[in-house]
Amino acid sequence: MSEEKNQQGHADWGRLADHKGNSHYVCMRITLLLERKLVEKIRKIAVGRDTTLTELVREYLEKLAAESAVTGGKRRELEALDRSFREFHFNMGKKTWKREDLYERS
């Protein structure tokens, strides 16, 4: 998936268009309370990767959200399958055969 960048260099995920087609970017600022040593370590990692601490956090959270969407979808599919088994339980009657009968050997 290609990501366009807005004027601030942010991914285009928060783009909204008004009735005239003008783009508006919607982002939220959040505050994290982290230990100073952790921030210093992460900033060094960011410099080594030619990025910022903010971009590292953004990328991690985007990846986490994408993974959650995939696993959430799988979970919902499994729940639907489980519901269908419960809802559509048919009584097939008494078993009149043996396993050996199904695999007769000559």
Written overview of the protein:
It contains three helices and two strands. By secondary structure, the chain is mostly helical. The chain has a domain at 30-85. Strands 1-2 form a two-stranded antiparallel sheet. The radius of gyration is 27 Å and the shape is elongated.
Give a concise summary:
The protein has three helices and two strands; from the N terminus they run E-E-H-H-H.
Task: Write the SSE topology.
Elements: E1 15-17, E2 23-25, H1 36-48, H2 53-87, H3 99-102
Antiparallel strand pairs: 1-2
Roughly what is the average pLDDT, rounded to an integer? Answer: 78
Q: Beta-sheet strand percentage?
A: 5-15%
How far is it from the N-terminal to the C-terminal residue, by CA? 57 Å
Secondary-structure-based class equals: mainly alpha
Strands, total number? 2
Summarize the biggest pleated sheet: 2 strands, antiparallel
Shape: elongated
Low-confidence parts, pLDDT < 50 over ≥5 residues? Answer: none
Instruction: Characterize the quaternary organization of these chains.
Output: single chain
**Separate helix tally:** 3
Helix content: 40-55%
Rg, alpha carbons:
27 Å
Key attributes of the depicted protein:
106 residues; mainly alpha; two-stranded antiparallel sheet; 2 strands
